[in-house]
Design brief:
- The protein folds into two domains: 244 residues, 3-Layer(aba) Sandwich (Rossmann fold), CATH 3.40.50.720; 106 residues, Dihydrodipicolinate Reductase, domain 2 (2-Layer Sandwich), CATH 3.30.360.
- The protein has eleven helices and 13 strands.
- The two termini are 18 Å apart.
Length: 360
């Protein structure tokens, strides 16, 4: 089968984890592929993603081969020594817009600004010349304007969009309708980790609810040391992220918690943690005869390994949608893979719907 021709915007740690993981398995064919829910989707394996175009704002990456840019600072993923593919793919300039926050600009040095329409024309030419089918967005948290820019590029270029970040496109009715009218699929918004903070929180909250207890309050706080957490130090950039994570948990409860009894969101940046993410979660509630109970969970995980296997599935599911000429949000894929989908489901429901979707 032909490869899935992809482009990426945001050549950061998440992208580095994705492509270095694929390279790891290429170098170790004797090993069973773990960290992915579907080794094969629609006939496509993890090795069938071909990143043929890339866009970024950082002067350390723009103009460089994609195989080198994936290792450029401030990226911290170094799981394999080098990448055998993408040596002939040059990273092109993306407009900065709101993509670089006040803390991140200390480690990311954007290339000089150019007219927006000029950059858009170059992006469309690159996408068309490289015959891109799907764009994967790894833009930073809070990059709402930049996300809308690239969503429109997808519409103009007639390609599918996988939105891994918490700027709402698939779950925003106006944008969902734009993709529907254009006859293009979109999967989003805000990727769930494989065994991540939010998927664990919502699963345990659902379990407590299903077992008849009454949850009275809950929190989830996360800390890490990569540029994602550095960007999230800027509270103004966190609005959509907190909405995404909070609604993901609230959607699993039969009775919503009052806003002041639930907190789900990033807490702080600790540089020496690097790509390690720590999650601390607590649920408090009452059981039979109003007897109180509580639970606490601590999760330690490599943040990039946790998301890469999900994105591998999302891209292949978008390819299936293109082949089937489906338009608008791919609801089953979005519900199972994303925190803020157009339609929230329980995870067992979403998985069942996703398997039906895969089977056609």
């Amino acid at each position: 089968m032909a490869k899935i021709r992809c482009a990426v915007v945001g050549v950061g740690n998440c992208f580095a984890g994705l492509v270095q993981g694929v390279e790891y398995y290429r170098l170790h064919p004797e090993q069973q592929v773990v960290g992915v829910m579907h080794p094969v989707v629609g006939g496509y394996s993890i090795h069938d993603l071909d990143f043929v175009a890339a866009f970024d704002v950082d002067s350390k990456k723009v103009g460089k081969p994609l195989s080198e840019a994936a290792y450029a600072e401030p990226n911290k993923v170094k799981w394999v020594e080098s990448l055998s593919l993408m040596k002939d793919v040059t990273v092109r300039q993306s407009p900065q817009l709101d993509g670089v926050g006040m803390y991140v600009d200390k480690v990311v040095k954007p290339v000089g600004a150019r007219p927006l329409e000029e950059l858009k024309a170059e992006a469309l030419k690159e996408i068309n010349d490289k015959k891109v089918e799907i764009l994967v967005s790894y833009l930073p948290v809070g990059a709402d304007m930049a996300t809308k820019f690239w969503a429109q590029v997808c519409l103009d270029a007639k390609i599918a969009f996988v939105n891994c970040m918490p700027s709402f496109i698939a779950s925003e009715p106006e944008w969902a309708e734009k993709f529907r009218k254009a006859g293009l699929p979109v999967i989003g918004d805000d990727i769930k980790g494989q065994v991540g903070a939010t998927i664990i929180h919502r699963t345990l909250a659902r379990l407590c609810d299903d077992r008849g207890t009454r949850i009275e309050k809950t929190y989830q706080i996360n800390v890490g040391g990569n540029t994602d957490f550095l960007s999230m130090k800027e509270q103004e950039r966190l609005t959509s992220k907190k909405v995404s994570k909070t609604e993901s948990v609230q959607s699993q409860l039969r009775q919503r918690l009052p806003d002041d009894q639930i907190y789900v969101g990033p807490s702080d940046f600790i540089p020496f943690l690097g790509n390690t993410k720590l999650m601390f979660m607590r649920i408090e509630g009452r059981q039979w005869a109003n007897i109180p109970y509580n639970m606490e969970v601590r999760l330690e995980v490599d943040d990039k390994a946790n998301s890469a296997g999900i994105v591998i599935d999302a891209v292949r599911l978008a390819k299936i949608a293109l082949e089937r000429k489906l338009a608008g949000p791919v609801e089953a894929a979005s519900a199972y893979l994303m925190k803020h989908p157009p339609k929230q489901m329980t995870d067992p429901e979403a998985r069942a719907e996703l398997e039906r979707y895969i089977k056609g």
